[in-house]
Every structure is written in structure tokens, then in C-alpha cells.
Amino acid sequence: MEHSIRFKHSPKHETIPARIFVNHEQNGRSGHLSHALAEYKKDHVIAFYSNCSGKRNNWSPGHNGFGWLEYKRSADGGLTWDEAQKLPYSWESFLNEPFTVSCEKAVSTKENEIVALCIRNLNPNGWEPYMEPVCVRSEDGGETWSDAIQICDKKGRIYDALVHKGSIYLLMLANDDFLATKPEHRYYIYRSDDGGKSFVLHGELPGDTNGHAYGNMTMRDDGALICYEYDSNDEYNLIYHISNDMGKTFFESGKSPCAKRIRNPQIAKVNGGYILHGRAGCLSDELPMHFVFYTSADGIHWDAGVYLYACEGKTAYYSNNLVIDREDGSQRVLIQGSIPYSKGCVNIAHWILEIE
Question: Are residues 247 and 123 in the same domain?
């Protein structure tokens, strides 16, 4: 089944070059994990990123969360950006707390509201173990921010968030480490009906989670929710689950094959189909570990994939995307990701896809 996505330019690294959004190389810094994006007003976008040590982590210097969060804002749908600002909660935590703060997702339920969903990291040379996640809120487009609000009493990492009918839904893996290794390491969906001021447990994903990490979710045109899990035992297949009640129950689960592999999947519903991007695996060397991009008609069966960015011998490509609806019915997809400039150090790049 072929998708009907109509790109203005075919998405591959020869036709859609990476735009450097943050040049960490000039200061010897890095910033792997934290690519939260949100549209908080028509064409007004906020983009978060990490400003972290370029030296910590002996295995891969620069691959760590030891630093703070910064953000920039755009008033033209992600084409131009204002000056960087520090997220106060992350900066104060870096200075005064035993943990650092990362942010992979942000959402908005109304104009000028931003809810930044934060994970807290106890390892100064990496991330894990994680603490209980929190959020910080802005009601003036990122000018000021609230104190941190604890989301739940489980330790873990929020992997995705979306807004549906005014409510926020979060996908979290309850595990203070990276890979799930115990029966109690489960994926949960939390819901907020008050713009992130409070959260309740909404649902739990089914199935075995051993060796799983990362996660993503998106809405189908028929109103169903699809949730995805990364399986470190099989980087050629995502695990998917489909729900008709936003994750309270699930009526279908299965495998979603990816020919060039996938790790840290980021999926979005767009006009005519679905897109998926992330690192093209990394646990074996039979295929490159480049930044891969797929398309699909149904969010389950993906095409052969193309590489948006290629860099031999280095790993990076934590990423996120934001679909911006245009007045004429077309869409702009802003993709943000980390691209390597040395073995473990990364810059932050943007790719912009225009969809008819």
C-alpha cells in the first residue's frame, strides 16, 4: 500500500541539507538528548536543546546530560529564530541540585501555553538513573516559567507527548535505567486535563518489555492511537499497539518492519501518510548508523528508507519533529536532531520538509 504524501522536495540528504541550529563545536560543547518542540501560537514555535559538557563520559566524551537546557523561539514557523535563553529550572538544578534536567517533549493546549516535560538525571557522566519526571509551564509564550510539577511517583523517562481534544497524553517507561529488564518496567500513559497542572494514570501498554526502551505515539485519521516501542533485541522491527480509547485498552499489537533499522523512533501523521526518523540502529555493524527517514501509508508498513544525514563511525541522531499546519492546508515538518562533529560531541541541526 503506497502512501500519498506529496513532498515539495524528495527527503534525502542530497536534497534537504541539514541546517545548523546550534553550533556546539565552536565552544567544545555537546547536546544529545533534548529536542522538545511545540507550536504555542500560530506559526510561533519553541525549540529546546541541551548545552552539555563536551568532555564527560570516558566511553564517548560529549555523550552526557551534564549541563542545562536552552531554548529559542520562532515567529515564522521555524525559519528564523531569536536569541537563546536558559530554561530557569534546568539552570538552577545544574547549579544547586544533585541532578540535571533534560526535555524530549513539549506540548501546548492553548495560545501562549507551553508545557515542557522534563526528565531528571542523576549520572553526571551520562543520564541514568532517572528520577521521577516533572514538567514546567509557561502561560506567556516562554517569557516566564512555573516551578516544577511532579508528574507521577514512578521513576523513569517520558518518551512522547501529544494533545487530543484539549488533554495532554504522555508515554513514559517506568524504569530508572535505560533498557527494561524487570517485569515492573512498564510503559504507562498519563493524562492531564488542566494543561499540565496535574496528571493521572490513564493506561498501560500490553506485552513483554524485556530489552525495550524509547517510545513514540501518534493519532490516526480514524481517531485511533498508535504507540510504538523500540526493541533492542530486534532493531529491524518496532513493536506497535493500537487503541480506540487513547490507551486505556488495546485491540491490536504487532511488529512494524524497518529495512534500514531504527533506534529512538520519532513518528508523525502528516497529509497522506506517516513519517518516521531516527538513528538507523547501532547494535551491530551490518548496516550504517546514519540518520534514517521512512514513509508509510498506515504507520506500520514502511518504505525502504533514505538517509537524511550520514557520518561514518560516529553515533548521534536523537531527534524530534513538529508538524505545522499551514493556512492553505499544506504542512511544514520541522525535524530537529543531533549530528556529530566528533565521536561523542554533537551540534544541533534542523531539516524542513514541505508537504502539499
Answer: yes
Domain final position from 216, 248, 269: 269
| Nearest CA-CA partner of 348 in 14, 65, 24 | 24
Pair (101, 164) in one structural domain: yes
Per DSSP, the three-state class of 26 is: helix
Give me the tens of pLDDT residue by residue for the chain, a chain 356 residues long.
678 999 998 887 777 889 999 999 999 999 999 999 999 999 999 999 999 999 999 999 999 999 999 999 999 999 999 999 999 999 999 999 999 999 999 999 999 999 999 999 999 999 999 999 999 999 999 999 999 999 999 999 999 999 999 999 999 999 999 999 999 999 999 999 999 999 999 999 999 999 999 999 999 999 999 999 999 999 999 999 999 999 999 999 999 999 999 999 999 999 999 999 999 998 888 999 999 999 999 999 999 999 999 987 677 899 999 999 999 999 999 999 999 999 899 999 999 999 99
Q: Are residues 12 and 106 in the same domain?
A: no
Residue 29 CA: distances (Å) to CA of 52, 89, 130, 150, 220: 6, 20, 22, 29, 39
Query: Which range marks the domain in which residue 159 is found?
Result: 31-269
- Any idea what the CATH number is for the domain that residue 174 is in? 2.120.10.10
Task: Provide the domain count of the chain.
Answer: 2
Domain match, 9 and 126 both: no
Spatial CA neighbour of 323 closest among 159, 22, 78: 78
The string over 292-328, giving b where at least 16 C-beta atoms fall within 10 Å of a residue's C-beta and e elsewhere, is bbbbbbebbebbebbbbbebeebbbbbbbbbbbeeee
160, three cell numbers: 512522547
Q: How far apart are CA 259 and CA 261, in angstroms?
A: 6
Among 236, 269, 302, identify where a domain stops. 269
